[in-house]
User: Fold this.
Amino acid sequence: MKKLLFLGALVIGFSASAQEKPVISSAVIAIDRNNDVKSAKEYIDEAAGIIKNKSLSEVREKDLAKFYFYKGKINYRVHQSTDPAIKAMDTNALDKALEGYSELLAFEKQVDRDRYSDDARQQVQFVANDIASRGIMANNKGDFPNAYADFLKTYELKKDFAEMVDTNMLFNAAIMAQQGKMYDKAIPIYQDLIKMDYKGVAFKAINAETGDTNVFANKEQMDRMVASGKFTSPMIEGDVRSDLYRSLVFLALQNGDTALYESSLKEGRTRFPENVDLLRAELQLFFDNKQYDKALANLDAAIAQDPKNVVMLYNKGVILQTEFKDIPAALKAYEKALEVDSMYADALYMTSIIYIDSANAIGTKMNDLPLNATTKYKKLEKEQKSVFQVALPYLTKARKANPDDEQVKNALMQVYRALKMYDKAKALMEE
Assistant:
């Protein structure tokens, strides 16, 4: 019985003393001499298992450096292979390749001995490019979190190992984080890009439904979205600095960070006063804070840049009408909006409201007259009717432009009744 126990102890002792050096050498021979990726992968994984169960102090410095380097090299060859069987050996081969090279560079820096570091730094650049390509593929599939991670990793690898600041990759990472609604990750990247004064190249297109301008990570994505019909007017622009502020302002708003929203907007407007999107954001801020005098000045600046901007002309009319009670100026703003778009429903409706309010004011005067003021009453009645008649065509066109608008329908019924067009009022009510 003692003999059997002794033999068992020998077996255990032999197993524990398995050596990584011959296995690493076999991996090196398989990949460098025989170009046998399959065997090399099996050997390097075996060596990894052996080293994992040891303290690193038990592995010779030379062997450990060789292991790390060839872990990177062999896994990268697995990743590059066009043979499905080899590629299937490890679906994480690209990440393991990066892990191997990174471990090698950190280790040789620690021991202050460069056996493989120069080669590893060169190989990391190839790995970084493949990680960027993987990020593009993830983006094309709508996998924004992984696209973000790969673009950011590419940026960091080039910065750390190639002393290259690839700000395009950092910009792509910001866009992916934004599209993936990872606002906390996107915000600091945009802030860094602003500090770097990144100009970049932007691929943009107009959202066919909303009219907003969207920025895409690359030309392929932009072209694909335009081909889908969801976007139009593709553009390639060479200075995205104002867009960085626009994105930062949007993200701050989404995150409820009022201080960042206002400070970024103020800085962006100062640096890029001609940017319409920033101007609109500032206009919304003025509206929210009820700073209507500033809003009006903002609108005038926008209209000066784009005299045919029907939305800005309309908004100017609304402020003049509702906040400043300057009816003639409001009418003039609405008229200019309708010169640009004669069927702009909101401007048509608000113009009609001015006339309806005026007619109703005449009605108040009529009601205040004594019963014996018949002549004056009829004169005011005639005047009121003429004002309602002015309002009528605006409402008719507004309803044609937007048939389902309940406010327009209600105003139109009021005018029909005032003009004693009861059949039309009844038909509209039944409808």
